[in-house]
Amino acid sequence: MAGLFQTGVSNLQIKSGSLLVAHPAHADRNIKNHVVMITESTQSSTMGLTLNMPNPNNLADVLQDQGYDWPFDDRLYTGGYYNTRSMILLHSSEWSSTSTMQVAREWAVSSDSLMFKKLENYNAPIDFRLFVGCAGWQPHELAAELKGKSPQWLVVPNPSRRVIMADADDQWTLAVMECSHNAVDSWL
Question: How many domains, in total, are found in the chain?
């Protein structure tokens, strides 16, 4: 199984928009079944959002506590354990706010008060998820997790919209399947 899922990551700086998918055979228990979208990757750090870790707090209650009337029936997700007081919106790129940063051709992130006002008024992107916190690595940390005989992560360089917006309970399985299809396609 390890041979099928080797990603052959030659450049350890993973590009924004890629997915890190917890390796089915090697991931340690702290990241088991995690799917992380990389939102920023530089020589000094890599940041991302764990897509499939629902937050136990009710999104409408959290935003109501901040003075917003949340009109959507969406879950709040825990993006990771850095900047846990920050709220980050991962969304389709046709929409923007004052702090929007492009992640990939189809995806962007925003984190400002205007985005909440826009959403409150039903000015919403086609696809979005709201996160508290984010995941992060220093270059040597991510390199260690990607290399060796027991890599912690598989890499999906161009994930499908289906995987990114999948239900959290199904997301890891769909991401592993997409990774395996990509690996087989690259051999053919």
Answer: 1
